[in-house]
Structures are given as structure tokens and as C-alpha cells.
Amino acid sequence: MSTQRDYYEILGVARDASGTEIKKSYRKLAMQYHPDRNPGDEEAEAKFKEVSEAYSVLSDPEKRETYDRFGHAGLRGAGVDPGFASADEIFSQFSDLFGDLFGFGGGGGGRGRRRSGPRLRRGADQEYTLELDFLEAVHGCQKEITVARYATCDACAGSGAEPGSQPETCGTCGGAGQVVQGHGFLRIRTACPHCGGRGQVIVHPCKACEGHGRTRVTDSLSVSVPAGVDNGLQLRLAGRGDAGDPGAPPGDLYVHIRVRPHEFFRRKGADIMVEVPISYPQACLGGVIKVPTVDGEEELELPRATPSGKVFTLPGKGVPHLGRRGGRGDHHVQVVVDVPKTLSEEEEELIRKLAELQDAKVAHKGFWRDILGRFST
Ligand SMILES: [Zn+2]
Ligand SMILES: [Zn+2]
After folding, report:
1. Mean pLDDT by groups of 10 residues along the chain of 377 residues
2. How far is the CA of 218 from the centre of ligand 1 (A)?
3. Looking at the chain, which terminus has fewer C-beta neighbours within 10 angstroms, N or C?
4. What is the whole-number distance in angstroms between the Cα of residue 21 and the centre of ligand 2?
5. Which fold is adopted by the domain 121-167+202-261?
6. What spacing in Å lies between the alpha carbon of 197 and ligand 2's midpoint?
């Protein structure tokens, strides 16, 4: 359903175009191909859908980043289906924009043609919290999730009427979905109380869905989590929410990302920080040590006389940047001189010799035993 053409080319904007430029260009093209200005022209309608699809992706920073990095395939991988089935779906999704583009708003924010007819309700959005391990968030992953939602009833295709029967035009509002109440000059237009604004009533309800037009289903979805996601980020899976009224678009599924902390890696944006213990001789004399990174062990050359607490940076070994700039953050290693809790006889001997050489005052052997002994008497 969706196009394979380059979205920037479709909108005639540069790859680094700002949000305002993209909106301006879409506005111009949408006016040109608008169905109301080209009645019955299928080519114009196809163009209208195509520019709207391009706009729906490029106007959404998250989708735009995914598209820039992975193209059309990346969007599909993230469960994004940017194509539009009908012009009405476009008006529904960009109702705010069309309100201000074409002056149909008038407070309603909708489209003139729509406002006089029955109101179609878009499906509700669904939310899901996806917990990831630290390294899954760094490298990206594929996750299987199950989400309960309302889907269009297969038996009645969402109409709510038993197959073979038809919903009938509401007698109260004559199919308009609205009634006018009040007297004299104070007249208020409200949704029809009999049909709930749908303009139709169901005489023979569908048995499968009891006339609701929707049934509860559990979807198993495979979510492509891009590398570099972090706590609090959300992925939008377009159209994976609840089904809407027949003819209205479904809601979206928002997947909220939670990342479990790592045992020793800390993350700040795209940078990783890790503390690595080194021995006193290594700090003094230098040497090659092994340090953990998100890609596994790396070797790090310590120079002679490395102070405790010094930070070494391995550039480009951090977390992949989420989005179109590409590249990765840095990996910072803080070395800390490790003080052993126990010493062998020989180690103690050598350290005492060192203290003597440096003329350092140290506790004599058995000092603590003496002190403790004094308190116990
Ligand atoms: Zn049904
Ligand atoms: Zn009615």
C-alpha cells in the first residue's frame, strides 16, 4: 500500500530540511492534489496519498530518524505502516493541520464535508511497557510481545449487523448523526442520542460481537527495537491500537522502553562509563590491561605513573546514536587503584620494605591485635 519512493524527493525538500520547511512543502502539495480540488481524478488522489505518507513520516522525528537510517524497510521493521488507505484517513490523522490549511477548522478542527455527516471515531491508542536488558537497548533487538486490543469483527466487518442484514438509517436523526435541540434562537447541535452519532442503528446485531462491531483479540507482534534506545523512549506502532469505527483508522500502539541497569556499565546518553580496578604496581609501572566494553573486552595501555581515578576514553566504542547522525558515543574507563583486603606473607614483606624505603610511617605488625587486646581487658 505504501510507496517505495524517497520521501524527501516526494516532498521536494533537502535531507536536512527543518520541520517548518517540510510542513510548508506538504501544505503546498496537499493543496495542489487535494481531492476537493480534483474531483474524480485518481492520479491526483494517489499523489495526495503519497505526499501525505511522506509527510506522516518526515513530520514525526522518531519515524524520520528510523527512515533516515534504515529506509522503508526500517519503518516496516519497526511496525510502522505509513501508507493511507483513503483520503478520509488522511483528514482524520492530520485534522489539526487540515483545519489550519484549508480553513475548515472553525473550532471543530475537522473537515467541512465530514462535520455534516455522522462522526467516525478513530480507534483508541494502546500502551505497552517493554523491559530490556542494558545490552539489548545498546545493540537493538527483536522482541516478541503480546497485546490485547479490540479488532474489527471479522463476521460483520465492523458494522455490528448480523451478516446478511444491514444497519438501518436512524429514524431520530435521519442518518445525520446529529440533532438540533433548543427553542428560538438558542439552538444547539448535539450527537443523536438514539444512534450515538453514527447515523445508523443495528436491528439484527451480529452474534460474534453482539453488535459492537469489534472483538477482543490478542496480537503477537515482533517489535524491532533500534540500537541505542534508552529509558523513557517510546516507539509508535501505527495502526496497532484498537480498531475504529468502520472506515475510520485504528489507534496506535505506544511501546514504552524501560532499561534494566547493568551490573557495572553506567550510561549517559550515548556514552558508557565503567570503573576498572588496577593494582598499585600497574599504576606505577604501566602495562596493558583488559577492560570490558559493550562489544566485549578491549585492551587498554596504561602509561607509567597512572593516578587512581584517571579516565581513559575509547572513542566510538559507546552506544550507537539513535537517529540519522549515525556513529557511536564514547566508552570511558576510570581506573581505580585496588587495595587488597588480605596480603600474603610475601606481599606484606615487600610492602613493608617499600614503606621503609619511602620512610613512610606504617602500623607495625600486629598493631591492630594489640589495640583490640587492650580494649578487651
Ligand atoms: Zn460482528
Ligand atoms: Zn440517530
Report:
1. 83 90 90 82 88 91 85 78 77 63 37 50 91 96 95 90 88 86 71 84 90 91 93 91 87 94 95 96 96 95 96 96 84 95 92 91 74 65
2. 17
3. C
4. 43
5. HSP40/DNAj peptide-binding domain (2.60.260)
6. 6
